[in-house]
Amino acid sequence: MKFLTKSILLIFLGTIFLIMVYGINLFSSKPFSLDHYLTKYLIISLSKSPEYLTYVGAVDFLNPITKHNGKLSNDSIDDIRKNYLDNKKHLNILESFDDNKISADQKVTKEIALFDVKNEIKAHEQFKYHSYPINQIGGFHLNLIEFITDLHPVRNRREAYDYVKRVNEIESVIDNQILWMVEQAKAGIFLPTFVFENVIRQLNEIIANQGAPLKDTFQRKIDDLGIQSAEKDKLKSSLQKAINDGFIPSYKKLLNYMMATKQYANKNHGVWSLPNGDEFYKLRIRVYTTTDYSPQKIHDIGISEVSRISNRLSEIFNELNYDPEKTAGTLLNELNEDPNFLYADTPDRKSIVIADYNKMVKEAEEGIKSYFARMPKSDVIVKAVPEYSEENAAGGYYMPPSLDGKRPGVFYANLYDIKQTPTYSMRTLTFHEALPGHHLQNALNIENEELSFYRRYGYGTSAFGEGWALYSEQLALEAGLATDPYDEIGILQSELFRAVRLVVDTGIHYKKWTREEAMNYMKEKTGMSDTEVRSEIERYIVWPAQALSYKVGMLKVLELRQLAMDALGNDFNYKEFHSILLDNGEPPLFILEELVKNWIALKQS
Question: Is 33 left (phi over 0), alpha (psi -120 to 50) or beta?
């Protein structure tokens, strides 16, 4: 009876949550549809991730029942197998929807869902152990600590005790990850040597710190609760026990495993060296770029784009009377060091930079309005990357607004090093992260009540999201928002960086380049520092094909825009074209092409 009552309450509260937050009416008299099925499927899938539920925050009122704030995702090998079988069932259900009985929009939705799940199934069946869950940039050994310290809320007693519970969960998570890595080793797959070295160094540092980030963050958060000293001491004692009994021993166990298997490290850097590695790389390209481009085609596109962009940069540098004997890469490096483009390192530097960025956002918002049928209701603001993470964070990144629009979108600018913020590149970053880039696209998607729940939240791809943001930089230039030639240099530098990625990623994983060959190419073409280049190349090695999505996505948007301009002539309308792109979620590029071609045909009819 107790269990039944609890289950009924959970269903009741969950239903209210779906209606309140997502506007889903589970009591509707409408027949069961593809959209209803995918909504249910997505919500069930998301509810399996306690980290996601914590991140959303909107379901925290369910925590006394679900206890998700005290848990971590902890998939065993059996759980991974079950997820694969669930995907097979999901595929069968999707295929059971008759194309003749669903709307044109639902056919698009079905195509997207099929594309996604078929890739998941193929990855499990053919490349189950080809990924690198432990790596130097985003491995689980780092993510566990970062999630608990950065995202776990401590706003009351319950959440303080949940913090300790999550630290206790780490041991089990690492145990299951090691079991998975043992199976990976049986398949003959090991990390490259430099990844072993970096991860081992990181593990040693974590162990030597004795859980200091966990303790320091916890201390700071419980100090704000206003609870008695005795209870604070009890909480700190519980956390220390969790660190001593589970956290430290589990990280030592992981370190021992890494030390024992380092002798088998992969001496090569590309996934071509893994079992059936070429086919694995093709699948990664398909997943991240949503195209069937061959590695050779992408490599050739990269070479061509690097040449084109470098030539344009040289033209501008010549017009500005820079040394014509120097390459674009060399001049970009010198520009990054030029004090004329750097802020003075004063105590109020960060506040000055943020104020300048916010001014640029407002200027971009006003200057770009005429290109869009609607602008986001949600605001976007600029903040500095928090000091505790700025040293290792990206130069800039974006956090979307809350689903209810009460929390604005945030463009985080990294101000750790004054050389990270040369003034000539600031507008480029503003266009990319805020307007008309990530904020405009993400906020419009969240606010789009005409689109199904699955299309808004169920599928996303960096080929579209990052492709749009990179296209936005060029759009802003075309719209006259970067009239200074140095601003154009900043935009071209950003595009060149993404073009070089096409060359080095395929070079490493398809053409069998070494890490050093890829680093030399990137340094020569971009003028980036040795440290920046090493970090980037090592990222591409452990995250094959992801870096291809930016430029491939941008080029597809430009290709489709030119197609529409050629077909429609004077009837081409930027607002309508951009609405086709932005009113359909984050579709794969082949779906985007279908949508644009259908729009052209409709305009011509």
Answer: beta
Contact 454, 581 (CB under 8 A): no
As a whole number of Å, the CA-based R_g of the chain is 25
Angle of helix 549-568 versus helix 295-319 axis, rounded to 10: 80
Structure token pair of residue 582: 């932005």
Domain of residue 46 covers 1-74
Instruction: Give the separation between CA 134 and CA 201, rounded to whole angstroms.
Output: 13
* Three-state DSSP state, 266: strand
Return mean pLDDT, the chain.
Answer: 91
Which long-range contacts does 348-355 make (Cβ < 8 Å, 24+ apart)?
349/415, 349/418, 350/384, 350/415, 353/384, 353/413, 353/415, 353/421, 354/382, 354/383, 354/384, 354/413, 354/415
Judge if 54 and 167 occupy the same domain: no
- What's the residue count for the chain? 605
- Local confidence band at 391 (pLDDT 50, 70, 90 cut-offs): low
Say if CB 147 and CB 55 are below 8 A apart: no
Q: Is 381 helix (H, G, I), strand (E, B) or coil?
A: strand
* DSSP one-letter code for 192: B
Q: What does DSSP say about strands 409-413 and 380-384: parallel, antiparallel, or unpaired?
A: parallel
Q: What is the number of domains present in the chain?
A: 2
Question: Burial letters for 554-580: b for 16+ Cβ neighbours within 10 Å, e otherwise?
Answer: bbbbeebbeebeebbeeebebeebbbb
Residues 134 and 263 in one domain: yes
- Is residue 431 one of the residues assigned to a domain? no
40 located within any domain: yes
Spatial separation of the C-alpha atoms in residues 458 and 452, rounded to whole Å: 9
CA 557 to chain CA centroid, Å, is: 20
Contacts within 8 Å (CB) and 24+ apart, 348-356: 349/415, 349/418, 350/384, 350/415, 353/384, 353/413, 353/415, 353/421, 354/382, 354/383, 354/384, 354/413, 354/415, 356/426
Residues facing residue 118 across a β-bridge: none
- Secondary-structure breakdown of the chain: helix, strand, coil percentages, each rounded to the nearest 5: 70, 5, 25
pLDDT digits 0-9 by tens, 456-500:
989 999 999 999 999 999 999 999 999 999 999 999 999 999 999
C-alpha–C-alpha distance, residues 306 and 496, integer Å: 6
In a domain, 163, yes or no: yes
- One domain, residues 135 and 260: yes
pTM of the predicted structure, to 2 decimals: 0.90
